[in-house]
Amino acid sequence: LSEILEIAAKNYPEKDAIVYGEQKITYEQLNYLSKKFAKYLIKLGIKKSGCVAIYLPNTPQFIVAYFGVLQVGAVVTTISPMHREREVQHQLCDSGATTIVTSSSLYPIVQNIKDSTSLGHSVTTSLDDSNFVNLLDNLSETDFKVEINPREDLAALQYTGGTTGTSKGAMLTHRNLVSNAYAFAAMIQATSNDVFLTVLPLSHIYGMTTSLTVPISLAATIVLLPKFKPVEALAAIQNNQVTVFCGVPTMYQMLLNDPNLTEYKLNSIRICISGASPLPPQVQKQFMKITQGFLAEGYGLSEASPVTHCTPLDKSFPLRVGSIGLPLPNTQAKIVDLQTGEILINPGEIGELTVKGPQVMKGYWKKPEETASVLRNGWLLTGDIAFMDSEGYFYITDRKKDLIKHKDYSVYPRELEDLFYEHPAVKLCAVIGKPHPIVGEVPKAFVVLKEGFNSPKEELQNFINNKVASYKAIREIEFRKELPLSSSGKILKQKLRVEATNKVKDQN
User: What is the predicted pLDDT for the residue at 139?
Assistant: First the structure.
């Protein structure tokens, strides 16, 4: 994986690799700094297959450290800067990381838990990188070479979201991550001329692959933002003539809702990708109308490095709203039965999506039973309920764990959420199954209204329930100022389910 940076630096030494505010770093400079950091890690005693944690927001230091770790042949485990003591401690202990790279603002969290981990060294940096660069400039010019077996050697230990329990480390090899980057770049027809807006958290596999590995594999330019703020994202697109933007549905929804949207020119955008959670059709249509760019829905999961599907850009393929598109090059996909995961399902019928390809993980770190439950003869059971149409396009109907069981019926939350987004007052929503003593579960919606809108619950409830069968009807709506989001912008339904379940218990 580290070779993609070396090749880019050799072929495009003077080209901007990173634009971060007023700071610009060329490919030659980025490769130089990464090699310097690799030598610093060697000085600390880091060897091939050792584990180094990166606990940073989106900054140039993250990228320098990331490739520095890989050049040593060590394994990267990234920790979301949103994580706090319990979560950081779990990941450090489980991964066995001996060194952590973090910021001075996050270091107190590390300090509080380091004695219970395997940490021997902490490398801290302030968010202006002068100290970081000075540290590296004191190192010698000695060369080093590490032999990597791409199929076997791990590049990353990527922890799953942990929204349904304790997070697990997906073992991703160099081959997994490089092959996925090349396949995704081919699918979206990206080139070295593209300018990527990198605002997805690099600590998350979606951002790491689509917004870091992919542009560097192409020697494209990365416009790096530390976090997503609509006005800053709009300005970055306009000022840097961004052509590619990978995001999540909540980001596109927030951009569309921003009152300053019409003040910015967004016509440089060629392709946007939406992933991590279902893209509401209304959001897709409206965003494409405003930007004149193509907003494609994609699909992936940490265990697959992560991308497995994407909507084709070729205009000879009609846009299928609601579809995650076709499998990436060299990727196979099929629908199997929900009970055994072994029987092939006919086109148009609902089952579990399973995938196979060079991007599929080796397994879960130190969890052979969990690995065996999702990996079968090279096929990865995704846990997502889906169907394939007669032309080979795939559609996610819901997460297996999100399915609402009402009497003998199955209710798919996404169908109801898509209807909510058709209402002009709805900004964000999530539908979950609320426990019920007689029917099992009933659909409950958590809704965030757009600013300036005031929609009565009854009116909104009727808007949905008049369009669906009675067993799918929304029984309760709860208005919120905001919904809990993961570091990648995914709505954390598990938290909402726990709240609803606890409320029912208290009432009983």
Answer: 59
